[in-house]
Specification:
The chain is built from four helices and three strands. By secondary structure, it is of the alpha+beta class. The protein has two domains: 1-40, YefM-like fold (3-Layer(aba) Sandwich); 44-96. It has a three-stranded mixed sheet. A hairpin with a 2-residue loop joins β2 (25-30) and β3 (33-39). The mean pLDDT is 93.
Length: 96
């Protein structure tokens, strides 16, 4: 996997295109820090690629939620405590 300054796209588009074609994936850096990933796709594969990227982003969000729950100790709740929380929210909704 290659990294590249985003300025290369503007200043040397041929170099960027050649690298992307060769590697298939390029990480763009801005001020020395990664901020984007560019994937080489074809017209035929763009829909499948977008679908896969969406799935990966959803999996990442779930992993982050699970990590946050562990940090907050929520992974230690008993089924009864979870149900009590659900019941409390439902009760509050029904009053509104």
């Amino acid at each position: 996997m290659e990294t590249l300054s985003y300025r290369v796209i503007r200043n040397e588009p041929g170099k960027f295109e050649k690298l992307l074609s060769k590697e298939g994936i390029v990480v763009l850096n801005k001020s020395g820090k990664p901020f984007a990933i560019i994937l080489d796709v074809t017209a035929e594969s763009v829909e499948d690629t977008l679908r896969l990227v969406s799935q990966v982003r959803a999996q990442k969000a779930i992993s982050e939620m699970r990590a946050s729950a562990r940090t907050r100790g929520l992974d230690q709740l008993t089924p009864e405590e979870i149900q009590a929380g659900i019941d409390a929210v439902r009760s509050a909704r029904s009053r509104n």
